[in-house]
Amino acid sequence: MKSISRRQIIKALGAGGALSSLGLAGCAGQGVTPGKAAAKVVVVGGGFGGATCAKYLKRFDSDLEVTLVEQNRQYTTCPGSNWVLGGIRTMDDITHGYGDLNSRYGVKVVHDTVTAIEPGQRRVVLAGGQSLVYDRLVVSPGIDFRWEEIEGYDASVAEQIPHAWKAGPQTRLLYDQLRAMRDGGTVIIAPPGNPFRCPPGPYERTSMIAHYLKTHKPRSKILVLDTKDAFSKKGLFEAGWAALYPGMIEWVPGSKGGKVERVDAATRTVYAQGGLDQHKADVINIIPPQRAGQLAQVAGLTNDSGWCPVNQQTFESSIHPGIHVIGDSSIAGAMPKSGHSANSQAKMTAAAIVAMLKDLPVISPSHVNTCYSLIAPDYGITVAAVYRLQDGAIAGVEGAGGVSPTDVPHQFRTQEARYAEGWYTSITQDSFR
User: Fold this and answer.
1) CA distances (Å), origin 199, targets 55, 111, 236, 287, 344
2) Are 356 and 362 contacting, i.e. CB atoms less than 8 angstroms apart?
3) For 196-205, how does the pLDDT look when each residue is reduced to its tens digit (9 = 90+)?
4) Measured between alpha carbons, how far is residue 221 from residues 131, 162, 206, 211, 243 in Å?
5) Given pLDDT bands bounded at 50, 70 and 90, which one contains residue 32?
6) Can you list the alpha helix ranges (DSSP code H) found in 191-270?
7) Cβ neighbours for 430, distance < 8 A, ≥ 6 positions apart
8) What is the mean pLDDT of residues 228-232?
């Protein structure tokens, strides 16, 4: 593979062009054999993984019967949700519907909840009573939380102390709490250990909340109590914090007492180091440890790690043949759990499914991930990478991608912030339009 620079990755975000350049467009359908019924593919989960996969299945083979099952009529993206907290975007800006998938591509969209997956019968059972049979099933259930790992924190407590790691009502709750907080208050953010959804996300969140506080409540502080001793784009984030928010943000690594072990919602106190360290705050954002989405757990698609093992060429489950698991729930080698990763996996999986249904060779996939983070509305940083299949596992391509350079003028950061906006527009159009 030719080495691809970080800048080329950023410019190659248009999905159709990227797929063509990787040779995937050649998997497109050749029509239904006379007298043979069209193959049925059911996709469960309408996020970046599921919506993209449903769309591209129809793009690659318009004769397929593709059904997308998603319980919500609109999808609120986690990418961009930190911008809402910072006051530079609204919830409407990050909320998307599914009408175009039906009207433009012919995807049948069913808004219902899956109650069971029956691999032996190749059937999906819905809460509304309907059963969907499939030739291939794609499951993109996102993440769920390991509530048991933080004492005193569970789904009910999250209605007072939000995680906001599934965008929507939780985002609104954290937004409202920040607006109601007094000037001079303290915000605690507690990121989880790896692996988790969107590795740079907690630190972009810290930045966006700092931007809001600097603008409206400048005497306030942010305390980041981290399970880890390092994080994605750490040097770039810390340089931005020092330049834009001096004295406002304190980051405590796990080795120095950062790991939150217990929460007392009544007193708004978190405890670390076996309870030796106690921290009170006006607003607390606990981001719990994570695992594959609940549907994957119930369907028996996970292993002891809590995530879903897959054939990393086709994303077909290693446990249940005929079911493909994409996005955050899957074990995808070196790829991070991100919206862009899910989008890339979705397209490659769609191509693999079309090839498998037509008894054609399955290509060896290449993947791309780009992650933008805003430290301020006019200050952006980036990490980008290219991946390929190597010895059965997805590995990073040496020399491809990279992170934003360190010593650059502010105009460079401003341009990266503009790229971030363009990236969000591009990937949401690619997934939902």
Assistant:
1) 27, 30, 14, 12, 17
2) yes
3) 999 999 999 9
4) 52, 18, 11, 11, 16
5) low
6) 201-216, 234-244
7) 14, 15, 52, 343
8) 98
